[in-house]
Design a protein that fits this description.
Number of domains: 1
Largest sheet: none
Structural class: mainly alpha
CATH architecture: Orthogonal Bundle
Order of helices and strands: HHHH
Shape: globular
CATH topology: Non-ribosomal Peptide Synthetase Peptidyl Carrier Protein, Chain A
CATH superfamily: ACP-like
Number of strands: 0
CATH class: Mainly Alpha
Strand content: under 5%
Number of helices: 4
Length: about 80
């Protein structure tokens, strides 16, 4: 990826994915929001999100890292580590 991704850019892209693909209200998407409790994602949604992240980054989040992701901020940090 040639352009520099900041946490803000990653969060914007992640928010866009969650709003468009998962029909989540943008107001609910905060760094502290829990994927399962606050945003009502289930395990299938988590897999779909991992696929969308892979499409966005061109890289795959390792399964051991993905299991530890609980919040939006965790997702942003995992993407930042990939890039």
């Amino acid at each position: 990826m040639s352009e520099k991704f900041t946490k803000e850019n990653i969060l914007k892209q992640l928010t866009s994915i969650l709003v468009e693909d998962f029909e989540i209200d943008e107001k609910q998407i905060t760094p502290e929001a829990h994927l399962f409790e606050d945003l009502d994602l289930d395990s299938i949604d988590a897999v779909d999100l991992a696929v969308r992240v892979q499409q966005f980054t061109g890289k795959k989040i390792p399964p051991e890292n993905f299991k530890q992701i609980k919040t939006i901020e965790d997702v942003v940090n995992a993407i930042e580590e990939l890039l």
